[in-house]
């Protein structure tokens, strides 16, 4: 049966059409009907599904691509229970077994939004959750860069074949996610171009892999809101970053909040909210291990959580450069903050 499922997956049909065909005809009759022309499809699809499964498995193995069927042990259970879950996933890397946190947003993002997304990515990684996104330009890519910078686990869900990186400039970022213990996945077969109609179905996989979906910036008609709609269908909680009224990239988030999404602000607020939704962070510490923070320490941690960095951080701290660096060093030694790159900090844990 898996041979038939794999051959059908290589047809690359729209997931809704494939489900309806299989529901009406069964797996084997669907394959036979598409091959014979009884079920209408294109010549390209007929050629693709005519290739024997054994030959496909050899091609995939040579390319370092793993196949996960919906009933395999390695297929995430929280995704498998969705009624519209992909029957077959193509995977490079390793998929986390636990639910992650999706951080999504507009491709046409602002520098402010990208800074927030990257900071969120760093904080989610430091807390121990896997970050799920679409590896698109803008918010998605920024969130995954934060994940990589903090040494966390990231999962990128593509709207193209797993060997067709889109956008091309994120090829290195995808490799870094895999090298860091995460994964790049797609339900589209290798070689599939990034056709526009494939991205809305892709978004349901993003929400299906997550326990919470965080929308940083979104236009009213963007893909981020399609993901949010999928999250609502799947019973996932939605967080959104409020923005300026009238700004195009804030309209979607503000509407989500109006309609019941939970507003989140800085990274500390995000982690606290995620713990309420998902339970204690995987890398959370015992209360006795949490360092004491005085008012000045908290002020510095809040600046870092808000994305202030470099010379701006030193200036905002209000101390002499030497005193500021000494306080940053103290906070780093106590595990309150950590460096994602030289001189660039993120909040690792909050104190009492």
Could you please describe the fold and organization of this structure?
By secondary structure, the chain is of the alpha/beta class. It folds into three domains: 1-62, no CATH class; 100-278, Rossmann fold (3-Layer(aba) Sandwich); 287-347, Arc Repressor Mutant, subunit A. It has helices spanning 2-9, 15-25, 27-36, 43-50, 53-62, 77-80, 111-127, 139-149, 171-179, 199-208, 223-233, 248-258, 267-278, 295-305, 310-317, 321-333; strands at 66-69, 88-93, 100-104, 131-133, 154-157, 183-186, 210-215, 237-240, 262-263, 337-341, 344-347. It has a nine-stranded mixed sheet, with helices on both faces. Strand 7, helix 11 and strand 8 form a beta-alpha-beta unit. The chain is elongated, with a radius of gyration of 22 Å. It starts with a helix and ends in a 5-residue tail after the last strand.
Classify the beta-strand content into a percent band. Answer: 5-15%
Tell me the helix content. Answer: 40-55%
* CATH C-level name of the largest domain: Alpha Beta
CATH topology of the largest domain: Rossmann fold
Number of domains: 3
Strand order of the largest sheet: 1-2-6-5-4-3-7-8-9
Enumerate how many helices there are, as a single number.
Answer: 16
Shape: elongated
Query: Main sheet, how many strands, which sense, barrel?
Result: 9 strands, mixed
SSE order: HHHHHEHEEHEHEHEHEHEHEHHHHEE
Rounded to an integer in angstroms, the radius of gyration calculated over CA atoms is 22 Å
Based on secondary structure, the structural category is: alpha/beta
CATH architecture tag of the largest domain = 3-Layer(aba) Sandwich
Mean pLDDT comes to 89
Distance N to C terminus? 56 Å
Strand elements, count: 11
Would you identify the regions where 5 or more consecutive residues have pLDDT less than 50?
Answer: 285-290
């Amino acid at each position: 049966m898996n041979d038939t499922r794999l051959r059908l997956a290589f047809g690359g049909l729209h997931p809704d059409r494939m489900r309806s065909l299989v529901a009406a005809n069964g797996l084997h009759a669907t394959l036979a009907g598409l091959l014979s022309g009884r079920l209408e499809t294109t010549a390209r699809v007929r050629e693709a599904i005519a290739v024997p499964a054994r030959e496909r498995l050899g091609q995939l193995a040579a390319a370092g691509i793993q196949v996960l069927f919906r009933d395999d042990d390695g297929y995430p259970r929280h995704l498998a229970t969705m009624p519209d879950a992909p029957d077959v996933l193509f995977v490079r890397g390793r998929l986390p077994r636990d639910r992650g946190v999706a951080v999504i947003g507009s491709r046409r993002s602002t520098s402010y939004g990208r800074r927030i997304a990257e900071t969120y990515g760093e904080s989610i990684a430091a807390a121990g959750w896997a970050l799920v996104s679409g590896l698109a330009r803008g918010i998605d890519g920024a969130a995954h860069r934060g994940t990589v910078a903090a040494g966390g686990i990231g999962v990128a869900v593509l709207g193209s074949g797993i060997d067709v990186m889109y956008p091309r400039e994120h090829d290195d970022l995808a490799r870094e996610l895999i090298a860091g213990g995460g994964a790049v996945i797609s339900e589209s077969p290798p070689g599939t171009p990034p056709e526009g109609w494939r991205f809305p179905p892709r978004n349901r996989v993003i929400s299906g892999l997550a326990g919470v979906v965080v929308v940083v910036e979104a236009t009213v008609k963007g893909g981020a809101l399609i993901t949010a709609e999928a999250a609502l269908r799947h019973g996932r909680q939605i967080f959104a970053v409020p923005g300026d009224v009238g700004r195009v990239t804030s309209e979607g988030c503000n509407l989500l909040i109006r309609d019941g999404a939970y507003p989140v602000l800085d990274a500390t607020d995000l982690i606290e909210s995620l713990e309420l939704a998902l339970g204690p962070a995987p890398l959370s510490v015992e209360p006795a291990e949490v360092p004491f923070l005085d008012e000045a320490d908290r002020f510095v941690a809040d600046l870092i959580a808000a994305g202030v960095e470099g010379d701006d951080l030193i200036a905002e701290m209000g101390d002499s450069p030497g005193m500021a660096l000494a306080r940053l060093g103290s906070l780093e030694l106590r595990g309150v903050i950590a460096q994602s790159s030289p001189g660039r900090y993120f909040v690792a844990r909050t104190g009492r």
